Amino acid sequence: MKQIVTLLLLFTAIIKPQSTSSKQIVDLRGNWKFEIGDDKKYAEPNFNDKQWGEIFVPADWENEGYPGYDGYAWYRRTFTVPASAQNKNIYAHIGYVDDVCAVYINGNIIGEGGSFPPDFQTAYEQEQQFLIPGKFLRFNQENVIAVRVFDSHLNGGIVKGKIGIFEHSDPMQFVVRLPDQWKFKRGDNEEWKKPNVDDSKWQELIVPAQWDFQGYRKYDGFGWYRVTFEIPANIQKEDLVLMLGKIDDVDEAYLNGERIGYTGRIKSDGTVGKIREEYQEIRAYDIPASSIKFDNKNVLAVRVFDDMLIGGIYEGPIGITTEKEYRKWNRNKPRKYQNDENNFDRFLQKLFDE
């Protein structure tokens, strides 16, 4: 049996948020509403928290009137985001949490740090930052952030670090920024790569973010993502690159039904080759001009297989950039996982899979 706990410790140490520049939009340092105990209704934006106490954030809750307390507690606070932040990369920074946290915006979960009991895993050494999808926010209106925390022992709470709502800059210049929520379906069917598939009843997931906290906890296996977007004709002379960030574990990417890239090996019979350390690779796939519909709807489908622990498209950068811009961003690390449906590697895969 695999040493799950040891691997989880190693994995969570690796998946730190990618380094990007950011600026604070809303300062959330200060007094928050606070209640010990646990009830999922505390995440609801209309929940009446007037009877709750107040606590300063960031600080150990032991030093704020709750000495010796171990267990669950909730934090809540209201905030307003200006309309000028629309269509930006907006993140909630929760600093360092001892031990585990789940963060909600207006009742919608946006991320977790660590793992709650019964599969407890601390994340107290990791700075917590979570993407907030634009549709979760009410711009120029009151919003509610709620944070569920579990502390195992010793100090507990939102203990230190930057606390607020931040705008993150793109790590490179994108010519197309992809939506922050994609369609998702558990399972595997190669027909799902086709652009005319009806995905209207598929679930929407935040991208990038692990699929586990979004309804697929402990799920290991196949899942498909789909997203629709336009590519303007004024860039058709550029060589384009699809950035898919980091995916756990292996994947195949299809644009308008044509496979444009892959990492790892999904065999023609649907089985998966040996899993190595693909989850650490940043995906960057050349987009053939022949697969693009300029000034029209394009459908990207991503087939993902997760072997164990967390799964999905869990970290950026996500978007479409030019070859020139990609090389500028990543001069010293050539892409290793390029693909052509007719290339020799694909031929060998089919030959030996049969």
What's this model, at a glance?
With 354 residues, the chain is mainly beta. It has three helices and 19 strands. The chain folds into two domains: 16-168, Jelly Rolls (Sandwich); 181-353, Jelly Rolls.
How is the secondary structure organized here?
Elements: H1 4-14, E1 22-27, E2 30-36, E3 53-57, E4 71-80, E5 89-98, E6 100-105, E7 108-113, E8 127-131, E9 142-151, E10 157-168, E11 181-186, E12 203-206, E13 221-230, E14 240-248, E15 250-255, E16 258-263, E17 282-287, E18 297-306, E19 312-322, H2 323-329, H3 344-353
Antiparallel strand pairs: 1-10, 2-3, 2-4, 4-9, 5-8, 5-10, 6-7, 6-9, 11-12, 11-13, 13-18, 14-17, 14-19, 15-16, 15-18
Describe this structure in words.
- This protein has 354 residues and is mainly β.
- It folds into two domains: 16-168, Sandwich (Jelly Rolls), CATH 2.60.120.260; 181-353, Jelly Rolls (Sandwich).
- The chain is built from three helices and 19 strands.
- A six-stranded antiparallel beta sheet has the order 3-2-4-9-6-7, with no helix packed on it. A six-stranded antiparallel beta sheet has the order 12-11-13-18-15-16, with no helix packed on it. It has a four-stranded antiparallel beta sheet with strand order 1-10-5-8, with no helix packed on it.
- The radius of gyration is 21 Å and the shape is globular.
- The two termini are 30 Å apart.
